[in-house]
Amino acid sequence: MVIKLKFNICLLGAVVKRDFRPLIKKTFIFVIKKMETIRQTPNWKGNIKPQGIILHHTAGGYVGSVSWCLDPKSKVSYHCIVDLNGNYTTIAKDNQRAWHAGKSSFNGRKDCNSFMLGIAVSGDTNKRRLTEFEIETVSKWCLSKMKLYGFGLDKVTTHREVSPGRKNDVSIEAETQIKNKIQELLNQ
Ligand SMILES: [Zn+2]
Question: Stretch 78-105: mean pLDDT, rounded?
Fold first, then answer.
């Protein structure tokens, strides 16, 4: 009887180890690592009422890209830059006209900086795939802005689409993954 009970406990231990530990570990890592840092960029001018979002990649690494956007010499900024692990830095307030789109046009309206938010992942999405953490963070960020300012998924676009021929960010694959995730969150 005692032997049988011990055997069952051992079996239960094996099941718990095999089936749940990776899941718990994965969830734990995601929850503890997704953090927001707030740093105010000097690279903005004027106020906006957000009516859409442009998805970008910075081409450079995360830390360097954040530093570059905090440097007045760069004259570049996004509202948010996301790290590979899902952490992100907010560098401009939503109502600040950040400098991320340059010469651009969306649905026939020029100067996208004047009415759209910019969020960027690091690196080059044409050369690497997004991590699941990036997809999660970018999608949740976009969804929160969509709800806050009352616009739909059709107002989420890419730098590639608003500056055709001049910019290639983000890749079609990255855009599809992010939009699919936003739609999935909308359906929940
Ligand atoms: Zn861009």
Answer: 98
- 158 has which bridge partners? 55
How many domains are contained in the chain?
2
Q: Tokens standing for 88?
A: 């992100």
Residue 123, Cβ neighbours under 10 Å: how many? 18
If you measure from the C-alpha of residue 165 to the centroid of ligand 1, how many angstroms do you get, rounded to a whole number?
12
**Are 76 and 138 found together in one domain?**
yes
Tell me, in angstroms, the distance from the centre of ligand 1 to residue 115's CA: 15
Measure the CA–CA gap between 119 and 140, rounded to whole angstroms.
12
CA of 32 to the centre of ligand 1 (A): 29
Give the Cα separation of 147 and 157 in Å (integer).
Answer: 16
Q: By percentage, how much of the chain surpasses pLDDT 70?
A: 82
Instruction: Tell me, yes or no, whether 7 and 93 share the same domain.
Output: no
Could you tell me the pLDDT band of residue 10, with boundaries at 50, 70 and 90? Answer: very low
Q: Cα(140) to centroid of ligand 1, in Å?
A: 20
Q: Is the pLDDT of residue 152 over 60?
A: yes
Residue range(s) defining the domain that contains residue 66? 34-187
